[in-house]
Design a protein that fits this description.
By secondary structure, the protein is of the alpha+beta class. The chain is about 40% helix and about 20% strand. It binds flavin-adenine dinucleotide. Flavin-adenine dinucleotide binds next to β3, α7 and β10. Its EC number is 2.5.1.26.
């Protein structure tokens, strides 16, 4: 049986592994782009030294010895951690606010203990104890939340325990006939896919945070992976689940459709730990496709690219994903390409140069306007070939060109590396963050340009420089997700969060003006709460408050997330 020490965790001040960092010295276009867009000369800056936990004072745990003994009796002493590093790493998610606070040692309130149960019974015993002794419990998957969902309230006076599900990580069984797998909720993405793929199956859920997020966390935040066009968002993938509460267990049946009144299943999805702990999910699984190809395309501008993506969504083609970067994001992607070293990559770089020169001669603006797109196909060889031909025709009909599989392969291999970039930027006194929303095809272009206007207007007002870029992904019949990334240098630690919050607010408010959602797949937590009433109306907020208050009268389960009492 594994113990707490075997469960992987982030470095306490950043993303993922200690020895993996972002490098720009091998990317010749990166530093010039940063200089041009935000005025920073990366070569002239000395990065901040890596933070050391020993430089900060970590407040002592306020968990009473009686409560600690009761928790130890449930899970064993090796699975109750009160050491500083465990408590700090579990007190922050991976939002810019959380990463910044961790880096500067803002430990005003950190969790008092981290507990690792191994079974539903242990989870329930812990929840009972939490209610009886009036403690606070925060369920924890990978801690990759970027909306403040795992962060304790700085004013909380009660003892806070984090319940880490990492020891519950097994695929329990697979129903080959139904294409359903019953899986424990604490499993990390790579471990889950490894267990499934050993038996020829995949769940097909690959969020950018895949390496450091879990099935339970995905369900509790209504996550969406990059392959959602084919495999669905998590609410489509999770067909049944088990929610453990202090005084009972709720199981929702993994049936294809349900008419059992208002959906309890849907209420639990996205509940961010407010209703109890999801210990198990029954998920849709698919046979691993024999052929998989990611093809890259180029469009002269954003509008033609969107027309192409929309036409694909409305066609008979069903790609695994469709993704369109706008002009600024295309520029950024090209700046992330490594200096060619091998003969093959040097030849590819020459071909690219020639292609861009040709496109310029045809009137394309290859520097600011041109948009790159990736579309992924899976299935039998014939199926993939048929779909590729259909997409090629659509792309051509809106003025785009097909580049082929080369750039697609690079995109596919590098997609999980970008989270390390944010830590690098923070080390250079630059914050980089994202805001995403769901919108309809009819409002998509208007939303895209208005968010840019709002961002740059706010920057001007504050006398700052920054850079924004965007991509469209997660296509549906009626619309898609717009995903904005922005980076802004800052000078003062004291003002950083205030400036960042003002910009984030300008972007989120624009989502509301154009009838978008607070987020397409980054949850509500605390950071998206200011707009929740505009999104779901005051009546919707009241309904959620009543639900959480009735299910958790003591306010013991991750209080303050999604809505505040
Ligand atoms: C770099 C980066 C990229 C990201 N990319 C994506 C993306 O592509 N798609 C996407 O959807 N999200 C993305 N996210 C956001 C984040 O990864 C998701 O919200 C993810 O679903 C959180 O999973 P987790 O296991 O890390 O949960 P945590 O962060 O540990 O927890 C999130 C919330 O769920 C609750 N929770 C966790 N486990 C359980 C459980 N078993 N029972 C009840 N409640 C539970 C927690 O209490 C908390 O409220 C990204 C985040 C980062 C930092």
């Amino acid at each position: 049986m594994i113990s707490a020490a075997d469960v992987k965790r982030h470095k306490w001040w950043g993303w993922g592994l200690d020895d993996v960092t972002f490098r720009f010295d091998n990317k010749p276009l990166f530093a010039p782009l940063v200089k041009e867009k935000v005025g920073l000369d990366l070569d002239a800056i000395t990065p901040r030294p890596e933070p050391q936990l020993s430089d900060y004072e970590v407040p002592a745990s306020v968990l009473s010895s009686e409560d600690a003994a009761a928790l130890t009796a449930i899970v064993g002493s090796e699975n109750v951690r009160t050491d500083d590093e465990y408590r700090v790493v579990h007190s922050f998610g991976r939002s810019v606010t959380d990463l910044f606070r961790a880096r500067i040692g803002d430990f005003r309130r950190i969790v008092d203990a981290v507990v690792y149960p191994a079974s539903d019974e242990e989870v329930q015993s812990i929840l009972r104890l939490v209610v009886e002794r009036d403690l606070v419990v925060i369920p924890f998957g990978g801690g990759s939340s970027i909306s403040g969902s795992v962060t304790p309230d700085v004013d909380e006076k009660r003892a806070i325990i984090t319940l880490n599900l990492g020891r519950m990580r097994r695929v329990l069984d697979i129903d080959d006939t139904a294409g359903l797998a019953r899986v424990q909720a604490g499993v990390y993405g790579p471990d889950l896919e490894e267990q499934l793929q050993e038996r020829g199956w995949t769940m097909g859920h690959f969020p950018d945070s895949f390496a450091y997020s879990t099935l339970g966390g995905w369900a509790a935040t209504r996550s969406s992976g990059m392959q959602s066009d084919k495999y669905g968002d998590i609410e489509g993938i999770v067909r049944g689940l088990r929610l453990v509460q202090a005084d009972g267990v709720i199981d929702t049946k993994p049936i294809p459709g349900r008419d059992s009144g208002s959906s309890v299943h849907e209420m639990v999805l996205g509940s961010e730990g407010r209703l109890g702990v999801i210990t198990e999910c029954t998920v849709r699984v698919h046979r691993v496709a024999p052929v998989r190809e990611v093809i890259a395309y180029m469009f002269p501008d954003w509008e033609s690219g969107v027309r192409g993506m929309h036409a694909i969504a409305r066609s008979e083609v069903h790609p695994v994903f469709t993704r369109l970067s706008d002009g600024p994001e295309t520029r950024f992607s090209l700046a992330m390409v490594k200096e060619p070293e091998s003969r093959k990559s040097k030849a590819m770089a020459k071909v690219q140069e020639g292609l861009f020169a040709y496109l310029r001669s045809k009137g394309w603006d290859t520097r600011e306007e041109m948009c790159i797109s990736y579309v992924c196909f899976e299935g039998t060889k014939q199926h993939v070939e048929r779909e590729k031909s259909a997409v090629k025709r659509i792309v051509k009909s809106v003025g785009g060109i097909t580049l082929g599989a080369g750039p697609g392969k690079i995109y596919d291999q590098k997609k999980f590396d970008t989270p390390y970039l944010r830590d690098f930027l923070l080390g250079m006194n630059v914050y980089g963050d994202v805001s995403d929303t769901g919108t309809t095809w009819s409002r998509l272009n208007e939303m895209h340009s208005s968010v840019y206007d709002a961002f740059y207007r706010k920057l001007d007002e504050m006398g700052l420089r920054g850079f924004m870029f965007c991509h469209m992904s997660h296509s549906y019949h009626q619309g898609a997700c717009l995903y904005f990334t922005f980076a802004v240098p800052y000078e003062s630690d004291e003002r950083m969060l205030e400036e960042y919050t003002a910009l984030k607010h300008a972007i989120q408010q624009e989502f509301m003006h154009h009838l978008g959602t607070v987020s397409h797949h980054h949850a509500v937590g605390t950071e998206h709460q200011p707009w929740i009433a505009e999104d779901i109306t005051e009546g919707g907020v009241r309904m959620l408050k009543d639900l959480y208050a009735a299910q958790d009268p003591g306010g013991n389960f991750n209080p303050g997330k999604i809505v505040t009492p």
